[in-house]
Structure formats: C-alpha cells, structure tokens
Design brief:
743 residues; globular; binds adenosine-5'-diphosphate; binds zinc ion; 28% helix
Amino acid sequence: MKNHTFVAEEQLLFRSSDRVAVLLPLPLAGAYDYRVADGMALQAGDFVEVPLAARTLTGVVWGPGSGGVAEAKLKAVRRRLDAPPLPAVSRRFVDWVAAYTVSAPGAVLRMTMPVPDALRPAAPAVGYVLGETPPATAPKATPARARVLALLADGRPRPAAEIAREAAVSAAVVRGLIAAGALVKCAVSAPEPPPAPDWRRPGLTLSEGQRTAAARLQSAIGAGFSVTLVDGAPGSGKTEVYFEAIARALAQPQADSAAGAQVLVLLPEIALGAQWLMRFAARFGAMPYVWHSEIGAAERKRTYRAVAEGRARVIVGARSALFLPYPNLALIVVDEEHEASFKQEDGVTYHARDMAVVRARLGQIPVVLVSATPSLETVVNVGSGRYGAVALPSRHAVAPPEIELVDLRRDVPPKGGFLAPTVRHRVAVTLQAGCQVLLFLNRRGYAPLTLCSACGHRLCCPHCTAWLVQHRLAGRLQCHHCGHAEPIPPACPVCGRADSLVACGPGVERLSDEVAALFPAARTVLATSDTLTGPGAAAALVTAIEAHAVDIIIGTQIIAKGYHFPLLTLVGVVDGDLGLAGGDLRAAERTFQLLSQVAGRAGRAERPGQVLLQTYMPEHPVMRALQASDRERFLAAEAASRRETLMPPFGRLAAVIVSSADEAALEAACRHLAQSAPHTADARVLGPAPAPLALLRGRHRRRFLVHTGITVRVARLMRDWLAAVRMPSSVRVQVDIDPMSFL
Ligand code: ADP
Ligand code: ZN
C-alpha cells in the first residue's frame, strides 16, 4: 500500500535544535519541552514520539518551547509520525475545553487521539494468487481445494483468511495449498474505500413548513458561526430537514482541501440508531462513518484515519465523536439536544451539546440543535436571540396523543399489582382492536428494594449508599451504581429468618409477570438494557415491533427514543412520578421531556394515540402541563423558578466531589477546602455535604457546590481555589462544571 506523506503545505515551523512544546495525552499540568532532532522538521500539530522517563510516548507538537527545561536536560524528539497533523482548530478546542472544565490539557488531548494505532501506517496486507504453473507435487484434488482454485481463477489476490471464508474451506486447506506452492504470495492493495454519501440525490418532497426550515438551515452553511434550534413534534420531519442542511454542506467546495467538507451528527444512544442509519443510507445512497464506544478496534482505526485524512465526509457518533480531528468540519448537528446522556460524567466531565457549540464557534461553522423537547438552556438562548430557531408544524392531521392522568389514589391497582383498573381495561381494548401497547417503567430489574419482613433489614450495596436491585431473570441482586452483584440470599443476612425477604416496588420484570397473568395470550417483550444486549438486539426488536410480532412492549427509557411504530396506539406510564423524586435541579424538566417523548410513541401515523399516566400527584405542575400538552407553559414556569433562585441557565453551578477510601483524610481535606473557599458578592460555596451517594464504589464522598452569578469566570475561580489547597494522594478531587447529575 502506498503511504501518503503529509508534508505540510503550511510553512515548516520548527527546525533542527529548535525547542518545541509537546503535549502528551496524560493528565500533566501542561506541555513539555523537547529539542527538534538533527535533520528533522516539525510543524505545530505534528504527532511525534518523545522519551519520558524510561518510556517512549506519542504526543503532539503544541507550539514553541516554553524554556522551562535547562538546555542540558532537554531531550530530543525521536520521530515524527506519518499521520495528518492535528488541525489548529482541534488544538485550540483542546485548550479551550481543558480551561473550561478545569482539566489537564493532556487529558483532553487523549480524547482527540483515542486510537494511537491509527497514527502509524498499517502493515501492508499480504494476499495469495495461483502459482504460475502447477508444481509437480500438486496436492491431490479435493472438492475443497478445487473451490479455492476456482475462486482464485479471476487473478485477484486475497488474504488467506478471506480465501478460506469465500471458498468455505478451513484455514488448513489454504495453508496446505500455500505449502505446496499452488498459491503464491503477493501484495494486496488497500480495500476500496466505502462510497461517499451523494448529496446530489433528491430528498423527499418537503412540505411548505419543512421547506422554509430547510432553507433557513441551508443559508447558514458557509456563513460562519451560528446556532439554530430545529424544534418540532416527533414525526414533524426534523430529520428530513437537517438532511437537507447536510446535503448543502457536502456540496460546499472546500478552499483548502480537495477532500470536501465534513459533517458531524451527534446522537445519543448510538447503539440504537439502526433506523437512523437506514434512513441516512436511503437518502444519500451510502452509509456514514459511525463512532461510539462499542465499535471494534479495526473499525475505530479505519474511521479515525478516514476522519483525520478528510475522507470521512459524514460521521455519526456519540459524544466522544466531537473530539475527532476533523480537518474540514463544516456543520455539526446535535440531535435530541436535550438528552442527559450528552453529559460525560467520568474523567473530563463535559456536555457534548455545549462543547459542540464551542467547537462550531472555534471553527466558524454552523451548529444545528434538534429536539421536540428542547432543554431550558437552549430555549432561553433562543429567547434572548443568541440562538436562532426554526419551528416545524406537526405534519399529521391527528392531534398529539391525548394524555390522561390516572390518579393512583383513586384508581387503585389490585393488591400485588401496579396497573390501575383503568389501565388494565384500556390495554385489553387496545389489544382487541389489533393494536400495540407500550408500558413504560424506567426501572430495570424485578424490584428496586428487597427487605426482610421479619426484621425490616434492607439489602444494601456494601460499597455504595444504595439499595440492591433485585434481578430475578439473572437470579441476582445488583447495585446500579457500582455494578456489585450477589446471589439472592435464601435467608435474611441479619436475622437469619428463611423465606422472609420480600420484593418492594415495581421493576419491569415484575410488571412483565403482572402482564403475563392478565393477558396470557399477548406476545410480550421486555426492552431494557439488560435484555437488549449484543449487536443487533435493538434492531431485531424494532423489526419485530414493526412486523407486529409483538403486542405489548414493556420497556425502560431505552425504548423512548425516536422510533416510529404506527400500530402503537396506547402508552401506559406506570410510574409518572419516578423522575420527580430525588431533588435534582432538572428533575421536573427531565420528567417532562421523557414523558413527552414516551407519549410521542403513541399513534404517530393515521391512528390517534392515547397516553395513560399513572401518578400520585396529578396536581403537580409537570403533570398538569403534560396533560395540557402545554410545553410553553411548563417552560415558562420552570424558567421563572430558576431565574428567581439564580439557578442555571440564569446562574452558574460547579461541583467539587472530594472522595477517599480513608474517611479521616477526607474530613481533613474538606476542612482545608472549606477554609479557603472563595466567598464573594456573586459566588458562594455550599458544603461540604455528603454527596447524595455518600459512599460510592467503596469511597466516601463529599460535595461542594459552587453557585455563582452568570458573569463569573467559574473555571478561574475553581483553579485558584483548588491550587491553594494541598491534597494528600489518598484524596481525589473531581471538578464538574455545569453538573447535570447530582448523584
Ligand atoms: P422527526 O425527526 O421530527 O421525528 P422525521 O424526519 O423522522 O421526523 O419524519 C417522520 C417520518 O415522516 C419519517 O418516516 C419521514 O421519512 C416521514 N416524512 C417526514 N417528512 C416527510 C415528507 N415531506 N414527505 C414524506 N415523508 C416525510
Ligand atoms: Zn454499589
């Protein structure tokens, strides 16, 4: 395979014996100085190998050296890697994200180079063709050998594994033929690159409203930085409309590259995106590149390289795709922008939607945010004119599904059950009419709590402040926070009474038992992250539902997103109050979004849908707004209450989680932090308080919450504060800017 050489068209910046700063993908305070070796020329962004202590590491030339290391101690750069340099915009993005999230720049850099392998040229592939003349010692002809010879008769070289697969023979057969000289080695050219999406293909004929919206998005392409919200009910055509923006972006000539413009689409729950991929392929005649945590190593390498070389034109991915080194990014789409899963909670904590806006600003390109239930942050930005917005009218003649509150205080489920009589009746009627039912319960497992009926002992996780969730299908108790699992004990571990443990509260497995007893003839399926494992499981479920091979779907939020099931006309929300408990700042907003989405599953085609929402608090503002399908009223009330308390987006929050296995060390560290905490007119530090999960994975946790005015530079404030306190190594400090989860 021919190696491309990415010698820069840009001017070479650093020459032999210059000092350069090299940023390493490690949580260090900054870049380290190195000397450019004799005969070497480097430019900013080049990937290089450098020595660090006894190791050789790959880093990125970040700029001129700082001079922090004495000349005599300065080590030389070992080697420049033959990979496209990290674009300037990516480097600025790394610095920006590190500063904003109070992280080490190297920790952010690691997210832009997640496949170190891809920075090195691939080993040339070896293949086999038929030998010139069959040797005298030709092996005896067998059907298997004959198939191999027939396959290779076309003269195309193939790797040994491919020959075995295509000719349906064992690897030993191929090896035997090679040993006998019947097959000979030759170089194989690189596999054909996949076809690029074709923006010339026509899209659907858009409705008037869709056309207007698409034109708005298209006019933003190539016109610098902008943020536009695409707002419309499920099924109103938001995806079709942003496909038009993608087509326009792909059609843009790129001044500085022959490769063409790139488009990034961020989606939550990428594993469930089979329907999205098929639609994309139908529209553009080719698959996009896909990026998320579950793709295999070879695929990651191929994709990373294609992105870095500008060959990947459309990339659809989970939040981590935002950090790939796009040389020609021209448009970012964030679909389901309100989704909480865009927030990365481990390591560098960032919100991919917010960082997408930052990336767009740094690259001077448009970003499109898409949602049927936009976040309050986005709504407020639209209101203030900072973001633009296009609204899509509902496409369907039928009104949005009717939402009916089922007051569980009056409509009481029979003992041992969780479905109110009204719901039971309506499920029966719906099944009778040949339609499908979704029963939504955002609780995995059989029961959220197991307690001893004799002594009252509750089974808790030994490592966390959390109840163990009973999973009967797996025969285990599980902690949903740390993953701890243990068998369900035959007797109470405290009082020793046998058969005294009782399951409390509903989980989807338990609900499924209730449904099986009530509707024995119905074909029921459980859709949770426990049952939908393995590649293709979600797609298979979607196909089964579409083919009406299923009558009742019992599912968690995994099923709430973006599917179109025309026969699904009844949604029962088993515990509408679940999200409202727990004192989270965004509890009401999330409950509203999730339940609106679930409600959107009902009757999206010609059949009107119905949603029954079981609740103990029908008078709660969230329930009222849902019932009235009145998003504006809900958002207005929510915004007013946040404005009054100066909560985001009208103020800023940052959390500091301090944790340690050693409780005494933790207490001391928290005392020191509290003593030096900044208190100004518009910044307060609350805490330390036990973090809501005070014990997590065996570590004790305390939380400080920093609450400031909207204009305060929180990151700076945090850095100064934390730098003033010396932490023992047993204590870990984690900063979470703009926290979304208060666990
Ligand atoms: P949303 O993203 O708002 O949920 P979609 O773009 O997914 O909506 O559209 C919902 C369904 O309606 C899809 O199957 C889509 O192909 C179809 N659809 C949308 N707009 C049109 C149109 N103008 N003509 C034909 N079908 C359309
Ligand atoms: Zn646990």
